[in-house]
Design brief:
This protein is of the alpha/beta class. The protein contains nine helices and eight strands. Helix content is 41%, strand content 17%. The two termini are 20 Å apart. The chain binds 4-methyl-5-hydroxyethylthiazole phosphate (TZP) and magnesium ion (MG).
Length: 206
């Protein structure tokens, strides 16, 4: 699985930017992102599916991975590579039943105990955070710092995707702490030029 995770895990969440998921996905891919996750908490299932189908086509054209947040059913219907699950979403095994054995299933975790449990449950990768303070996630927990990434790196074998307040400037430090990939939302989708923000991040991670 590690070899399938590129260093930048770019999350397509329109937030309040007024940008569409399709437009954002196009810009992120143009900048060189090779994994996109669609996260769109305010969308209806139908809107989410339409965006997922559009982004599936865009990602296939660039040979990029595509994951859907929260919803294995939408991921399956759109032909996505997998799904990203939170602690309150359906269990990994249920997502696999919906998506099949080859799907990528990731799980958000916030401490070493959750990280070990997600790995034991068969997650292909775990999200770890929030590393830094973030306004993006409603009811986000207190920032854990790169210390959490270090602690989880020692505790699990599966790939780690660090998340929470990460910017192009901090991405390298987070990877140095043991993350296989850095996930970013606001630093990409709120950037004046999301394509340039991806390029900058990838340059700093190289
Ligand atoms: N999970 C933990 S922090 C977070 C999520 C979804 C939000 C990350 O967004 P940003 O804008 O990169 O801080
Ligand atoms: Mg979720």
């Amino acid at each position: 699985m590690t070899s399938r995770l590129p260093p930048l895990y770019a999350i397509v969440d329109p937030l309040d930017t007024g940008r569409t998921p399709e437009a954002l996905a196009t810009q992120l891919l143009a900048g060189g992102a090779r994994l996109l996750q669609l996260r769109w908490k305010t969308a209806s299932a139908r809107e989410l599916l339409a965006a997922a189908m559009a982004i599936r086509a865009l990602t296939l054209a660039e040979d990029a991975l595509f994951l859907v947040n929260d919803r294995p059913d939408v991921a399956a219907a759109a032909g996505a590579d997998g799904v990203h699950l939170g602690q309150e979403d359906v269990p990994v095994a249920v997502a696999r039943r919906v998506l099949g054995p080859r799907a990528i299933v990731g799980v958000s975790t916030h401490d070493v105990g959750e990280a070990r449990a997600a790995e034991d449950a068969g997650a292909d990768y775990i999200g770890v955070g929030p590393v830094y303070a973030t306004d993006t996630k409603a009811r986000a927990l207190a920032p854990r710092g790169v210390e959490l990434v270090r602690a989880v790196r020692i505790a699990v074998h599966c790939p780690i995707v660090a998340i929470g307040g990460i910017t192009p400037e901090t991405a390298r430090d987070v990877r140095a702490a043991g993350a296989d990939a850095v996930a970013m939302i606001a630093a990409l989708v709120r950037a004046t030029d999301p394509e340039a923000a991806v390029r900058d991040t990838l340059h700093r991670l190289a």
